[in-house]
Amino acid sequence: MKTFFIINILLFTIFTYPGWAQESTYVGLETREIKALSQEQIEGYIEGRGMGMALPAELNNYPGPKHVLELRDSLNINAMQEEQIQRIFNEMHEKAVKLGKSIVEKEKELDKLFASGEITDNSLASLISEISDLNGRLRFTHLNAHLRMVQVLDSAQIEKYDQLRGYGNNSMHHHHNK
After folding, report:
1. Interaxial angle between packed helices 39-47 and 79-116, expressed in degrees from 0 to 180 and rounded to the nearest 10
2. Domain that holds residue 107
3. pLDDT digits over 34-49, tens only?
4. Most exposed among 8, 65, 86, 110, judged by the fewest C-beta atoms under 10 Å?
5. How many domains does the chain have?
6. In which element (H, E) is residue 128 found?
7. Cβ(130)–Cβ(99) under 8 Å?
8. pLDDT in the model for residue 12
């Protein structure tokens, strides 16, 4: 009985001593304005940045309009193409900024409900549904802009784009539906 008591005291001491507690990887995040989003993510949403949302397109021979415009000279983009690409970019960017701002606002609302203790099952379900829908629409917006680009560029421009972006030997393994 005495051994059992000593073992329990030792185990209690080991698991409750503050110096032995495992520090959370979340330390410091509690000071964020919106706990779930870094400042970089907030800025990315508000500014309409891609934030990797279009990687399935970008890395599979579907160029992004912003980067095509940046590389227009190297890709020999003609005036008609440039006009179309600029229109695709402008439409995408306008939608992305609007959706991104909405996502930030909904995340802020979610954070405030948890912070105030006013969160309920219903408000949680509703906000998560709204945030998920907005994120899905935002991702669609970015991916769809890439999809539209293959209607504007020819295969040589797409191949050159991939090379200029450093995607190595990422030759087109399929034909885009034009």
Report:
1. 130
2. 32-164
3. 989 999 999 999 999 9
4. 8
5. 1
6. helix 121-149
7. no
8. 60
Residue 9 lies in a domain: no
Within a domain: residue 4? no
Q: Are the CB atoms for 37 and 107 separated by under 8 Å?
A: yes
**């399935």: which residue's tokens?**
56
Residue 130 lies in a domain: yes
Q: Is residue 123 part of a domain?
A: yes
Q: Are the C-beta atoms of 49 and 26 separated by less than 8 Å?
A: no
Name the packing angle between helices 121-149 and 79-116 (round to 10°). Answer: 170
Tell me the per-residue pLDDT of 33-92, one tens digit each, with 9 for 90 and over: 898 999 999 999 999 999 999 999 999 999 999 999 999 999 999 999 999 999 999 999
* Residue 93 to residue 141: CA distance in whole angstroms: 9
